[in-house]
Amino acid sequence: xxxxxxxxxxxYPHKNMHxxxxxxxxxxxxxxxxxxxxxxxxxxRSQQTIIGTIKDLSLEKDIVFTGWLxxxxxxxxxxxYRGADVFVFPSLYEGFGLPPLEAMQFGVPVAxxxxxxxxxICGNAALYFNPKNPQDIAEKIQTxxxxxxxxxxxxxxxxxxIQSYAWSTMAARSLQIYENVI
Length: 182
What we know:
Blueprint: E1 4-8, H1 17-31, E2 36-40, H2 47-56, E3 63-67, H3 74-83, E4 86-89, H4 98-105, E5 110-113, H5 118-122, E6 126-129, H6 134-145, H7 148-163, H8 167-181
Parallel strand pairs: 1-2, 1-4, 2-3, 4-5, 5-6
């Protein structure tokens, strides 16, 4: 029943979760944010760093770890997406980042890294930040969840963006490529 910011990721160094934690600390301290931060994921080489950062910033009561949700937990995952006020994707690099698209599918406004393939995947349907700058991450999250007009704009753009990844669209594009080759 509480408001929250959501992030879904394995806890590997390139996923940049420690900077997300730092930015959340800035949100709490500078902006007095009441939202919780919900992290879906586990494992990876940086989990201990993440836990250490949380303890160093005294955020244990404000951050919720769900662990990894299996295929059997899909309804819980979908409910967590649906209930989020903002989705944050702080990754330093991705081959293809699916979680922001999942968030868009559920109408959740997305704040994401301005690096790697992420801007190509999210298009104009996300608010971008420098993933190496916790202050910038915090400012973009603050901007997004305090601006209902921007939320609605990104929500609508998100619905359009995910259409370009629909199976029917992808199948049609693949068929067109095959026809051009033959």
